[in-house]
Amino acid sequence: MGENFKSGFVTIIGRPNVGKSTLMNRLIGQKIAITSNKPQTTRNRIQTVYTDMERGQIVFLDTPGIHKAKNKLGEYMVNVAEKTLKEVDVILWLVEPSNFVGAGEQHIVEQLKKVTTPVILVINKVDTVEKEKVLEYIDTYRKLYDFAEIIPTSALRGQNTDDVIDSIFKYLPYGPQFYDEDTITDQPERAIVAEIIREKALHALNDEVPHGIAVGIDRMKYNGRGKIYEIDATIVCERDSHKGIIIGKQGAMLKKIGTNARYEIEKLLECKVNLKLWVKVKKDWRDSDFLIKNFGYREEE
Fold first, then answer.
1. Which phi and psi (to 5°) does residue 266 adopt?
2. Dihedrals φ, ψ of 109, to 5°?
């Protein structure tokens, strides 16, 4: 590792649902952040690590979307996101390709004006619009803020995502390696397993159950003799009617969630998994400080 080695922290911000987790998974080359077409899927800052032994190491913090909070969980998520802007070396701001700059974007511009951190604007999903339009969108955003760089990409298709990495390295300070090169995330396995189950539940349930679900891992134990992980997990929802939907007719929905989650978890842990799922109702858990902490959302991290 020479003296040209750079290292630093980068946060990916943007309104909910602009593709932050998809971009991070694409840059890292592995599935870490959960993706869903529902806003506010990412609830914690997920640290993922990109290492290039020649150039350096980038530690990504994927913050919850910056938005106007409606409950205690929402407030917690916004505080985490806004605090992160001051603590990182580079900010990646992800936006959709559009000439319309809404209140959500204006709110983010106001937050960015309070910090001196270089901001790289990433216009995502450019595969969904005509090429000529992209220049217009770049122009619209250029007038809003003095960006270090503006990069049009498609995280889903992998277009220009290498340019994003190149740009980040330009603005990182020289420094030591924080993690060994084979580290991809600092999230404990239990947390990632819980997130996979939550993602599969969100996908399977579509819009039937609003965002009030959390997943707690009750037991996660490796059985050396059978070479199998025994995992017991509870899906927590806010209403009795939601519980019925999550379980489904004769348990069909819960079985589907379990099958999909088990497939991903086996890939993650690289061994067979025996997954048992339960469903519990805890009314208004999103407004309870104790329950929010209980499901792993902690402000001080």
1. -65, -35
2. -55, -40
Per-residue tokens: 221: 């134990």
Cβ atoms of residues 155 and 127 within 8 Å: no
Which SS3 state, helix, strand or coil, does residue 21 take? helix
Rounded to the nearest 10°, the torsion over CA 48, 51, 56, 60 is: -10
- Residue by residue, DSSP assigns 182-237 as T--B-S-HHHHHHHHHHHHHHHHHTTSS-S-EEEEEEEEEEETTTTEEEEEEEEEE
* Six-digit token string for 242: 């939601």
CA distance 248 to 255: 9
How far lies 209's CA from each of 194, 240, 246, 252, 264, in Å?
Answer: 18, 11, 8, 16, 22
Rounded CA separation 65/63 (Å): 6
Classify residue 109 by its DSSP letter: H
pLDDT-derived band at 271, boundaries 50, 70, 90: confident
Torsion sign across C-alpha atoms 288, 61, 162, 96: positive
30: Cβ–Cβ under 8 A, 6 or more apart, which residues?
184
Report the pLDDT averaged over residues 161-175.
Answer: 94
Taking all residues of the chain, what is their mean pLDDT, rounded to a whole number? 81
Phi/psi for 168 (5° steps) reads: -60, -45
Three-class SS of residue 167? helix
Q: Render pLDDT for 189-222 as a digit per residue (tens, 0 to 9).
A: 777 888 889 889 988 887 777 667 888 888 888 7
Q: State the DSSP code for 125.
A: -
- Give me 45's structure tokens: 């800052």
Say which residues have a Cβ less than 8 Å from residue 250's Cβ, sequence separation at least 6: none
Q: Quick check: pTM over 0.70?
A: no
pLDDT (average), residues 53-68: 75
| Mean pLDDT value across residues 45-53 | 74
Write out the two tokens for 279. 């469903």
Buried b (16+ CB within 10 A) or exposed e, 159-198: bbbeebeebbbebbeeeebbeeeeebbebeeebbbbbbbb
